[in-house]
Amino acid sequence: MQPTLLIIDDSTVLRQQVVEILKETGGFSSFLEASNGIEGFKMLIDHDVDVVLCDLEMPGMDGLKFLDMRNARAEARDIPVILLTGREGQSQKIRGLERGASDYVTKPFDPGELIARVRVQVKIKHLQDDLREQNQRLEELSNTDPLTQLANRRFLMKTLDREFQRSVRNNDPLSMVMADIDHFKRINDTYGHQQGDVVLKAVSEALLDELREYDLAARFGGEEFALILPGTELPQATAAAERIRKRVSRLKFEGALKPLVLTISLGVATGPRKDVTVFDDLVRLSDDALYAAKREGRNRVVIADPP
Fold it and tell me: 153-303 is classed in which CATH architecture?
């Protein structure tokens, strides 16, 4: 996509001049115009802008105040601003650069210089956007189990810690469900590990389908999964676990796995309670309930023992 340029200047003639110069280069097709800093700031927030050309001296809100307002908004802070100034002195330019301007152009400007400076800032902006996307993708990968695409154990514990602190602070319920595929070793031994991976993915999809957007499903390890249910009392968490149990029991497979009848065991715990003082206690209680479900015959939901 070609870049969007926001031009803020109280001179209509100058704004039109800038548009004509940059249109001739063929690299800019989207232009926004504002006659003052307030109008320009609203456009900056409401539109996807790549570069701003802003007059340093304008009635009402000047270029420096515009920079201050941009700096106060996290989503706009990285958008480059090139100041336009008719002054030859360095003090105002230095003040602008210190306030976060990326560059400046002195009026009357040379068309070639204007084009070059804008192009440099567009390139920098796009490189920054690409880097930000790559960093976000890397962070997602570092938090995701590669097979199931659920959260991994590291991200689970980080999220559980945060949600537990919020639960204690606001005295809101927080539930955790531990789940384990029954006889998974037998599945691997009978059908092979590749088919075992197919089963893990199918169960992961079933978990996600039964959860709300703000719940978290994670692969705890092997064939074991963990669910965090913020703001959820024990009866609602137990009902969610039972829905998951039934959903898994209805899963149908093709090919070599067609004869497979799959079941899952689940343990449920909810805080706050007197024996839950740290988030690890919630993990322990739900895990104990899970193993109770295993001992009692599998394919069932067990609630943690009362305090």
Answer: 2-Layer Sandwich (3.30)
Catalytic site positions: 223
Closest CA to 70 of 59, 60, 57, 79: 79
Residues 78 and 61 sit within 8 Å (Cβ to Cβ): no
CATH of domain 4-141: 3.40.50.2300
Cα 242 to Cα 97: distance, rounded to the nearest angstrom: 60
Per-residue pLDDT tens digits for 142-160: 899 999 999 999 999 999 9
For residue range 84-110, what is the model confidence (pLDDT) as tens digits? 887 666 777 788 888 889 998 888 888
Pairing of strands 174-181, 264-271: antiparallel
CA separation, residue 61 to residues 37, 57, 64, 69, 182 (Å)? 5, 8, 8, 10, 67
